[in-house]
Amino acid sequence: MTGFVSGVRLGVDVGQVRVGVARSDPHGILATPLVTLARDLTADPDAVPADMAGLVRLAAEHEAVEIVVGLPVNLAGKHGPAAANVSAYVARLADVMGSIPVTLTDERMSTVVASRRLAERGVRGKRQRAVVDQAAAVEILQSWLDAQRRRTHDRRS
Does the predicted TM-score (pTM) go above 0.90? Predict the structure, then answer.
């Protein structure tokens, strides 16, 4: 893809309790689930929360060139309390990530879609709760990758 810097991207779904993480291949074609991190809501204000430290480790381990975080916009396209919470998380994460850019992307319905896809595969109940955050991160990252590919294709047309 011209105009697309190749490299692994991490997709992140920030929830109240957990952070789902997915990764892309270096060519930006496919997002796959990676891990679910527990949100660290007890860290001192001047300390790096454990979930963000985990994201820094994952970014280094996978040589990520960018972090793509889902912004929960409501169906009317408005930013509610959840979006404000994620925006604050992203501002802090951007500081912690240093030179790795952190990008926000509309993640409307990603958890709903992820839950539905898991249910269609027979993954329900506790098993679903354990992986739904990763699946939502996959939806977020895959949508973003597809949009980048469309943009790049449209520029060449």
Answer: no
